[in-house]
Specification:
The chain is α/β, with parallel strands linked by helices. It has 11 helices and 12 strands. The two termini are 42 Å apart.
Length: 298
């Protein structure tokens, strides 16, 4: 295995086309194909499915490319440290539940450490996909919550995928509502107060188990349910339909505007929000920088 072979494999995965990848790498296509075959032979794996439609990663190729990106990132850091030259773009990926503080930390990280060339990914996604992204090294870090209801299942899933969980903070439950909502004048809100209003939650796809829900009290009966896929839609419905969602209460007015407010919810529960990392790998410097910014914000 060489760094050049790893870069070849990453480029093929990014383009999904051997001819296009060869052009980006400034090598002949037969040479690229040969290099990929040698890599596959060395490790006894198949990295790509090859068909008339192009090239797709195999499941084992997806896992291998996660490690390859880590190796290339570390090699780039060594090169920068001792030569002062970067060999490529700065890359960093985060997978998270829909937390504004995670986005705010991401923005600060980019401003402080992005450099002249970068490719940063902020994936606000489904709970199981966060775990899967970090397990397969598509993301360096994931952000999600535990509580008394989901902790056993989530911790088992993390353990099965070789991941660790570290706490950032514990929060008492709140509800997000629009500032014009009839409940906005209340200091604290009860579950009975919420009954006339639509409850908003995030879609969890094929892993739509209550244990993977992004909102606590997911098993609570509710007459009006709205399920969405993104934070902008959820916030628009909070305002337009006087809806609510149960959350940590942490919100950034700078990023989300003044029209959404958080009110304490009178329930005996909590949200332990933290980050997950691969247990077998030392975090990159970029990941450590991101964690420090997260801690400074929360």
């Amino acid at each position: 295995m060489t760094l050049k072979q790893l870069q070849y494999a990453v480029t093929v995965a990014e383009t999904g086309n051997m001819t296009e990848a060869a052009g980006k790498l400034f090598i002949a296509q037969p040479s690229l194909t040969s290099a990929i075959h040698e890599l596959e032979k060395e490790y006894g794996i198949t990295l790509f499915f090859r068909s008339n439609k192009g090239i797709e990663l195999t499941p084992e190729g997806d896992e291998f490319l996660g490690y390859a990106r880590q190796v290339l990132e570390q090699a780039n850091l060594i090169n920068e440290r001792y030569t002062g030259k970067s060999t490529g773009k700065q890359r960093f990926c985060v997978s998270s539940q829909h937390y504004s503080f995670a986005v705010e930390a991401f923005v600060r990280l980019l401003r402080e450490h992005g450099g002249d060339k970068y490719e940063f990914h902020m994936r606000e996604t489904q709970t199981y996909d966060i775990i899967d992204d970090v397990a397969h090294l598509r993301s360096e870090i994931g952000i999600l919550y535990l509580n008394s209801f989901n902790e056993t299942i989530i911790r088992k899933t993390l353990k099965d995928n070789g991941l660790t969980f570290a706490t950032l903070f514990k929060a008492k439950p709140h509800v997000f509502i629009g500032k014009e909502n009839p409940l906005a004048g209340k200091r604290r809100i009860t579950l009975d107060d919420l009954k006339p209003y639509p409850r908003l939650s995030y879609e969890q796809g094929s892993h739509n188990s209550f244990y993977f829900s992004e909102e606590i009290l997911s098993t609570m009966d509710c007459d009006k349910e709205l399920v969405v896929c993104d934070r902008a839609t959820l916030f628009n419905m909070l305002i337009g339909l006087n809806g609510y969602t149960i959350c940590s209460g942490v919100i950034s007015e700078e990023l989300n505007g003044p029209n959404i407010i958080a009110k304490p919810l009178e329930v005996n529960d909590y949200m332990e929000i933290g980050y997950i990392l691969p247990g077998s790998l030392h975090p990159s410097q970029m990941t450590l920088n991101y964690i420090e910014i997260l801690k400074s914000l929360v």
